[in-house]
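W.,

You were right to be curious about this one. When I first looked at the sequence I had no strong expectations either way, so I just let the prediction run and decided to look at it fresh. Below is the sequence, 156 residues in total, followed by the output.
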Amino acid sequence: HFALIPLRLIAGFIKSPLSQKRLTQDSVELYCEAIGNPIPEIQWWFEGNEPNETYAQLWDGARQDRVKINATYNLHSTSTISIANLTSDDSGMYECRASSDPDRNHLSKSPKVKWIRSQANVFVIEREWPHLRPWHLLGHWCLESPAMLTPAPVSS
């Protein structure tokens, strides 16, 4: 004889965010998808690379409105976090957290089930910009910048 145990207060990831490498001034997008009963809430958290830094929750409009979070809660939960105009301070561990526990955000009751977590690293590398290449033209040294795509004379 088997007893059927209803799936209650359980959440699980069906898609986890992937670690990514980006250049400064680029943008990054992380995606997370979870199932559960009831449909789980998804939150995004961040821990930077500084010593003793702890996780902090991210929200839509954070970091001078560079952070955008979109979420849908239909048959399951999906969430995308986008960060625009990246700086080196955006490097770190991003964590997608999901919970189906109705008491998950209660201030006095402790939740029956802990948040499940899935992590991805974002590495933001300084852009070497502009790349200047010296060259010689008609007796003058010039610099070529990919931003301008036209030579600029160099004063000696």
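Here's what jumped out at me. The longest strand covers residues 28-37. And, maybe more interesting for your project: The chain has a mean pLDDT of 83.

Coffee later to discuss?

I.
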